[in-house]
């Protein structure tokens, strides 16, 4: 009788344990698969420009007595090496945001500075397409006092990527708007920085996937604008490691709005200090 009672009590516990173990293994297997995919993707992405460079250098040698051809091939070599450089740089950025603890090097960062920096970085490509970069709420007047808590260079990279995408995926003579505002939330105020464009938009199906490493809706288009498919993965990682998030709203053919939500400097710092005191 007793034994039966005990086994009846242990059995559900046992099955729950088994279930936990199975879930753990599935998660481990998933992480392993993601890692393997990533390595395969990196290899593939590197192979393309490296392969092109090798073919082009052969072509240059074969065309030694045709200066026009040499110039043409050299131009394409330059293009491929630029691609290679930006891919390697983005891989370094990604590994940095994945490995460094942003909060170790955190400080209050002015939203107006982040916005100004992002606009500076994208000014040239915006001008060449006659795209207007307009900031509101973050650049002047009363909203000059918006501060987020975090790692300055990581936050600048994240916002820069969003503005760069907005310019890249918009037709000429459109507008890209960058706005900052404070929103009340449970556990302290948040700062919202949104980047809106009037570009090609993103379908419902692709909306979540664009944050994956190397995912592009249209690889040819991404490549044409120098994209690597890593930008939004970096943004997502930076947002999450700062205790925030990035979301997207979009209507195909009409435009997209990416919104970064980050803890406000004041409240985030107070919380961190409270935790330190409690320890
Ligand atoms: P990429 O280097 O290709 O721009 P990202 O990770 O920054 O890589 O973005 C992934 C994909 O998401 C892009 O290839 C593009 O298809 C889509 N995307 C990103 N931003 C926008 C935008 N503002 N409008 C439309 N599509 C976008």
From TrEMBL:
Residues in Histidine kinase domain copies: 41-266
Enzyme class: transferase
Compositional bias (Basic and acidic residues): 267-279
Entry keyword Ribosomal protein: no
EC number: 2.7.13.3
Catalyzed chemical reaction(s): ATP + protein L-histidine = ADP + protein N-phospho-L-histidine
Entry keywords, A to Z: Kinase, Membrane, Phosphoprotein, Transferase, Transmembrane, Transmembrane helix, Two-component regulatory system
Keyword S-adenosyl-L-methionine: no
GO molecular function: kinase activity
Cellular compartments annotated: Cell membrane
Protein name: Sensor-like histidine kinase SenX3
Organism phylogeny: Bacteria, Bacillati, Actinomycetota, Actinomycetes, Kitasatosporales
Residues shown, of full length: 122 to 400 of 493
């Amino acid at each position: 009788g007793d034994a039966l009672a005990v086994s009846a009590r242990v059995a559900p516990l046992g099955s729950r344990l088994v279930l936990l173990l199975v879930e753990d293994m599935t998660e481990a297997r998933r992480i392993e698969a993601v890692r393997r995919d990533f390595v395969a993707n990196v290899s593939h992405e590197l192979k393309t420009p490296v392969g092109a460079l090798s073919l082009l250098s052969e072509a240059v040698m074969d065309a030694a007595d045709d200066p026009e051809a040499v110039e043409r091939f050299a131009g394409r070599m330059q293009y491929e090496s630029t691609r290679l450089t930006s891919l390697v740089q983005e891989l370094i950025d990604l590994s940095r945001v994945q490995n460094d603890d942003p909060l170790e090097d955190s400080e209050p960062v002015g939203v107006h500075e982040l916005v100004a920096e992002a606009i500076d970085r994208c000014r040239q490509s915006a001008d060449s397409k006659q795209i207007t970069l307009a900031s509101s709420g973050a650049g002047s007047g009363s909203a000059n006092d918006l501060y987020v808590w975090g790692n300055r260079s990581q936050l600048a990279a994240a916002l820069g990527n969003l503005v760069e995408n907005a310019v890249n995926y918009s037709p000429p003579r459109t507008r890209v708007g960058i706005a900052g505002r404070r929103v009340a939330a449970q556990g302290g105020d948040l700062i919202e920085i949104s980047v809106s464009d009037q570009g090609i938009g993103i379908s419902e199906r692709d909306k979540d996937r664009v944050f994956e490493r190397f995912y592009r809706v249209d690889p040819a288009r991404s490549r044409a604008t120098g994209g690597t498919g890593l930008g939004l993965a970096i943004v997502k990682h930076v947002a999450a490691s700062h205790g925030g998030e990035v979301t997207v709203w979009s209507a195909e053919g009409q435009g997209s709005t990416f919104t970064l939500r980050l803890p406000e400097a004041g409240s985030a710092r107070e919380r961190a200090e409270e935790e330190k005191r409690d320890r």
